[in-house]
Design goal:
The complex is a heterodimer of chains A (about 120) and B (about 180). Chain A is about 75% helix and about 0% strand. Chain A has about 120 residues and is mainly α. Chain A has one domain. Chain B has about 180 residues and is an all-alpha fold. The longest helix of chain B is centred in the middle third of the chain and has 38 residues. Chain B is elongated, with a radius of gyration of 20 Å. Classes of the chains: A mainly alpha (about 120), B mainly alpha (about 180).
Chain lengths: ~120, ~180
């Protein structure tokens, strides 16, 4: 049984799942950062004030962390037995990460605020 | 000389936790880079693995502590709304409003703080993922260069995010201390 567990851990699927889940959590944070700043979603921005003193950052960050924590075990179960999936996961994660960085960059989300 | 409660938390958040995380990065990266069978003996792998697990978990915990103290203790002081009619020196008690009231300083909030407060969350997410993976793979990590490279990349992004947050934190505090 222990030997079997060791063999399962020899694949790179678990690392791919960890990477993808982190990228998804970061992307959700980036997306919410832009949405919360948009005039047309001002009600959503108010809803994100999970903590009055912290403001919308409390909701944005919590939802990003929830997305990360919820997708990780699911992706782990889907991928942990697989091997040679790390490159594909890296490519997808890179796209999500770049999108998140753009959406999280103040000049971008401030420009989109009035859209 | 006096250190107020606010000063104390700002020091814990930025100077203590933030600095430890940034300093520990180089050790973690070097540890993962050299964690290969061709570079170390089996005994060396066991010894380095222990250090790597303790180091990566330590960095994950420190990054969570830095982000939580920053978001839920220091940031509310920064973004507090002043009573109506507050102007001049009295506005200095309300750093965000103080910065926004001055056209020569407002970018510290509009760009610096707006970027810092979001990007800082990358550090604990990525550092935790790295710590879990180092623990999960254990000595197998020495056989898996691609996994190590990915973990090192995640670690590097966590460092960059923490670095951006730290630099803006220091510069914003210089212009408008909490």
């Amino acid at each position: 049984m222990a030997q079997q567990a060791q063999d399962v851990r020899a694949g790179d699927g678990a690392a791919a799942a960890a990477l993808l889940a982190a990228a998804i959590g970061i992307f959700v944070l980036g997306l919410l950062t832009t949405l919360a700043d948009m005039e047309r979603f001002s009600n959503f921005s108010d809803w994100l004030k999970w903590d009055d003193e912290v403001g919308p950052l409390s909701g944005k960050s919590s939802l990003g962390l929830i997305a990360w924590a919820a997708t990780w075990p699911v992706l782990h179960l889907l991928l942990y037995r697989r091997d040679r999936v790390i490159l594909g996961a890296s490519a997808i994660s890179f796209v999500l990460f770049v999108a998140a960085m753009v959406l999280m960059f103040p000049p971008v989300f401030e420009r989109l605020a009035d859209v | 000389m006096e250190l107020s409660n606010r000063d104390g938390w700002a020091v814990v958040h930025g100077l203590v936790l933030g600095t430890i995380f940034l300093l520990a990065f180089a050790g973690g990266l070097a540890g993962m880079w050299s964690f290969a069978w061709k570079l170390v003996t089996p005994e060396g792998v066991r010894e380095r693995l222990r250090r790597l697990i303790v180091g990566t978990w330590g960095m994950a915990v420190i990054s969570w502590a830095a982000v939580i103290t920053g978001t839920y203790i220091v940031y509310p002081w920064y973004r507090a709304t002043p009573p109506q009619g507050t102007t001049g020196a009295a506005l200095e008690e309300y750093p965000r409003s103080f910065l926004l009231a001055d056209a020569s300083l407002d970018l510290w909030h509009k760009f610096g703080m707006e970027w810092k407060e979001h990007i800082a969350f990358l550090a604990p997410i990525l550092a935790t993922a790295v710590a879990v993976m180092v623990t999960y793979y254990g000595p197998r990590l020495a056989d898996k260069p691609m996994v190590r490279y990915v973990l090192m990349a995640m670690f590097a992004v966590a460092f960059a995010a923490a670095g951006i947050a730290a630099v803006f934190g220091a510069l914003i505090t210089k212009n408008a201390p909490v």
